[in-house]
Amino acid sequence: MSHNPHDQTWKQLTDHLGEWVTESKKRTTDGHVASYIPELANAPADILGICIMDASGSIAAAGDSNFRFTLQSISKVFTLILSLMDNGEAAVFSKVGMEPTGDDFNSMLKLELVEPGIPFNPLINAGAIAISSLIAGKDSTEQIARILTFFREIADNPSLEINADVYKSESDTAHRNRSLAYFLKDNGVLDCEVDDVLRTYFSHCSIEVNCTDLARMALVLAHNGVDPIRNQRLIPRRFVQIAKTFMFTCGMYNASGEFAMNVGLPAKSGVSGSILSMVPGQYGIGVVSPPLNRKGNSTAGVHLLGKLSQEFDWSLF
Ligand code: DON
């Protein structure tokens, strides 16, 4: 019988994850499935799935962990990393800032109020649109191909694809994002055409995954850019450090302070009800439950991560 702390945590996880999921699933009734992208409204409102992956690739999963969903804002973490790899820090931070906003994720308030009119950070919509424009490639077709290749590599899953229905649904209804992009263009933040950058942005938001893919991607971040399973560096350490810092301060938008207080782990949410999180140095975590709270974060997902953090004392503070 081993007394390795990892083995003990892992046993407790696999023994209890199912009951914790059942408990947190009750919180799905506190939220509403996103409908401003009409296709997302088709997601079932009563599901919760989680996958936790350790450095050897072992998986603890429970609930609806095979449910498929689109990355939405979680993709912004990885396009940020790719744009840093393509351009370096100085160029990226000439187009986006490093501070939380306290505003909603799709707010345009500060673009006009604060000088210079660059987005406050790369995880709000305005910032992520600016980041999409920095991905290397002669046009959106090339940029999208590079993004897909990079995401497949991080997820170790060559079959990741863009969900065409979600893409079209977002593109047809993205009046707010279009206005953000025009603002950015007018402020001199975008060098390319608005329609082109939005194609890239909607495409990476529409990449379809499941909880295992999320946990696999998170595992690489948890290990500072090295994939511990293939024992291969995929991302320079500094760029993971930047990404994780943003996840901490802005990853749950204007609920990031509350999440840091209750969970204390780097995380990024998406309006599909997904959350990517990690226990640094140890586990990658993927969660999905579509009903969202007012701030755009999964109600049951946040509750479940809070329970796990409490149970295993995972807060970094
Ligand atoms: O641009 C949008 O509104 C969506 N594609 C992504 C927003 C999102 O996921 C915000 N997250 N909670």
From TrEMBL:
Substrate binds at S73, N125, E170, N177, Y201, Y253, V271. It catalyses: L-glutamine + H2O = L-glutamate + NH4(+). InterPro entries: Beta-lactam/transpept-like, Glutaminase. The keyword Acetylation applies. One of its GO terms (molecular function) is glutaminase activity. Its EC number is 3.5.1.2. Keywords: Acetylation, Hydrolase. Pfam families: Glutaminase (PF04960). It comes from the Bacteria. The keyword Acetylation applies. PANTHER family: GLUTAMINASE. Homotetramer. Belongs to the glutaminase family. This is Glutaminase. The lineage of its organism: Bacteria, Bacillati, Bacillota, Bacilli, Bacillales. The gene is glsA.
